[in-house]
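Input structure tokens:
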């Protein structure tokens, strides 16, 4: 079974928040807490939010002037004791104005695995069938943004329950 999560957000002088559009399957995904970068300035620069704490790494350009963001927390419920492949992808805005590169971790009741963008991570759903996922990542603004525009972001995460 394959399930794609499309997360959306806006970049600009408004808060950067990822929300969820979910395509249902034989298993489900719940949003426990959507990821939020806070206010983002429309200047060239980069900031990285910890998926553990929401704290931003040093950002010399002050692209993300808020001290802390909020990492995304999601729960995948799959059949018990099955392997699940999770692959998050980097999003690039048209014209290479900015990218969002997810980083995070997935865990069941006994194992935690870390993931990076564009790489598959396989984890067993364990005896409970529950996999928790925490997401932070890197926002990289490569071209000045216009404050009067909204910039949608689609972050795709493939979730596949393996036979």
């Amino acid at each position: 079974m394959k399930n794609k999560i499309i997360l959306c957000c806006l970049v600009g002088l408004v808060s950067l928040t990822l929300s969820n559009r979910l395509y249902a399957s034989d298993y489900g995904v719940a949003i426990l807490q959507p990821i939020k970068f806070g206010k983002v300035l429309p200047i060239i620069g980069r900031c990285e939010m910890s998926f553990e704490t929401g704290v931003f790494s040093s950002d010399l350009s002050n692209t993300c002037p808020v001290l802390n963001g909020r990492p995304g927390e999601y729960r995948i419920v799959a059949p018990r004791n099955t392997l699940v492949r999770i692959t998050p992808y980097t999003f690039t805005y048209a014209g290479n104005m900015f990218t969002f590169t997810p980083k995070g971790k997935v865990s069941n009741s006994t194992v935690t695995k870390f993931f990076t963008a564009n790489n598959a991570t396989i984890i067993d759903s364990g005896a409970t069938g529950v996999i928790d996922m925490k997401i932070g990542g890197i926002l990289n603004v490569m071209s000045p943004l216009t404050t009067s525009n909204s910039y949608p972001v689609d972050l795709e995460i493939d979730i596949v329950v393996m036979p």
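The chain has a mean pLDDT of 80. The radius of gyration is 16 Å.
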